[in-house]
Amino acid sequence: MKNTKYYTPYEVSLHNTIDDIWVSYLGKVYNLTPLIKQHAGDVLLKPLIEMAGKDISHWFNPKTKDIRTHVDPLTGCVKYYTPSERFLHVPPPWPCTDWPTDSGRPWWRETRYEEGVLSGKTRRLRIVNTLTSQEQTIEVCTEESLNAILNRYLRYNAHAASYTWKHNGVRLDMDKTLGDNGIPDEDDEFYQLRMDRERYTQAIHLYFNDDLTEF
C-alpha cells in the first residue's frame, strides 16, 4: 500500500523506555505509550514495560489475532495463556470481585495504537552522492518505495530530492520498491554461497539536478 509506513525491527527497538514504549506483534507496530500513561501504576503493566521495543507475537494466536488460550486442566475451562505473567486487560484465571467487567475493548484490539507495519525483510543499501563523493549505508525495508527510502536518507542530505536516483546508470522509479526497480535482494544467495553480504551491498548513485529541493 502506497501510504503504509514500514519499520525495521531496529527502529522499534529504539522505543524501549517507560515514556516511549513501542512493540510489534503479528506484523504490525504499535505505540503503547498512551496506554501506559493512562494506566500508570497498574501492576499489570509490568509485562508490557519489560517487552518495550520487542516483538510479542508469541503472545498471540495468529489465526484469531487474540491472546493465546489453553484449557485449564483443573477446571476444563478455556483461559488466556500467559505463562510469564498476566498483563493489562487479561482477566484473572478465577472469579474475582475486584475485576472490572466494563473495561471496554482490550488494548490489543485497538487500532488507535497502530503506527505502521513491521518489515518482513530488511536489507542494507549503499547510497552514493556523486556530487560530494559521500556514501552512506542504511537499512531499509524491502516493501517500501524509493520515495520512502529517500525520506530515510534525508537525515544525511536534506536536498536528496534534488538528485536523480540511478542504479547501474538506469533512472529509478521513485514510486516503486527496490525489487520492482530491478535491484534484487541477494542476501539468501550470498548466504548459500557463504559470501559476506556486507562486502556486496547494492548501490544507488545520486546525480545532482542543479536545484535545492528540500523537505
TrEMBL record:
Domain Cytochrome b5 heme-binding: 4-70
PROSITE patterns assigned to the protein according to its UniProt record, in alphabetical order: CYTOCHROME_B5_2 (PS50255)
Pfam families on file: Cyt-b5
Main location: cytoplasm
Keyword Heme appears in the UniProt entry: yes
Gene Ontology terms: biological process: cilium movement
Molecular functions per Gene Ontology: metal ion binding
Keyword Cytoplasm among UniProt keywords: yes
UniProtKB keywords: Cell projection, Cytoplasm, Cytoskeleton, Heme, Iron, Metal-binding
Highest taxon in the source lineage: Eukaryota
Protein's job: Radial spoke stalk protein that binds heme under oxidizing conditions. Required for the coordinated beating of multiple cilia maybe by functioning in a redox signaling pathway.
Name listed for the protein in its UniProt record: Cytochrome b5 domain-containing protein 1
